[in-house]
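Because showing beats explaining, we let one protein speak, sequence and backbone structure tokens together, and leave readers to judge.
___
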Amino acid sequence: MRILVTGGAGFIGSHLVDTLLARGAAEVRVLDNLTNGTRQNLAGQSANPRFTLVVGDVRDGVVREKALHGIDIVYHLACLGVRHSLHDPVENHEVNALGTLVMLQSARAEGIRRFIYVSTSEVFGTAQYAPMDERHPTWPETVYGGSKLAGEAYSRAYFRTYGMDTVVVRPFNTYGPRSHFEGDSGEVLPRTIVRLLAGERPVIFGDGEQTRDFMHVSDTSAALALLAQGPGLAGETLNLGSGCEVTMNALCAAVAVAVGRPDLVPVHDIARPGDVRRLLGDPTLMASLTGFAQTVPFERGVAELVAWFEASGRENPDRLAQIEDRNWVALEAV
């Protein structure tokens, strides 16, 4: 099959590209404007004749037409993140919600076989019960979560209204090599690793008992790849989580052990508004429909990610200066 991955130069997207090509896709085409993604993430495929990078914005109709021509399957990951939504909610909506709608419209016009919308667990907000199955209420805490939920609704509407084969998948908290530590796209685990490797104490907002459901990116990309062909998936909405929750306090402790600096205990700042308190996914439906099961336990994944950051530090010695460990209140006020 010929596959398009929007946002394919990003963290999860680039790993998905690697997985799809390794599994024999006839072509994998990436559409990315390189706002968050990088060419470096795709460097391993640059000489692969089955790989193509189209640089452009999903909101540009000419670019969409070029990227979609001849494509069988679309994975739509292009988006702007949660911190971005705090300081520019309108652009966040335009890329995440409107960008999904116009991608659906163009994909339908092109006659693609399946449209896989990669959403986020942030659509749920804080867990009202756990583990959270696909029917858990959706009460997003941020514009980012709201905009991704809009993309879900559009994807399901295209299935119901037009009979278009769409699948919605909600990854929980993915981590691993190439994960973002810098700027407003930085995530807690890589930020914590960078700080500890630099001899700095990690920062926790709130009491540290908020939880997340982590999955290694190799497992996330493997699960996503299964969605390209499986029968009985059209119109489905699937959670992609591990079924295990980790507190921020436990995360910092695990990283400190992996780095060999258990003396660097966290600094606690005030809690962030709109910060989800608890996330714990129920992976049952995903497993039953695709046979997927995760393979990388959290502690091993953290140790491997620490080793990756240690090895890659020579390429980027100023990582600590690139971290934005500011509370969302301060970020919003800027």
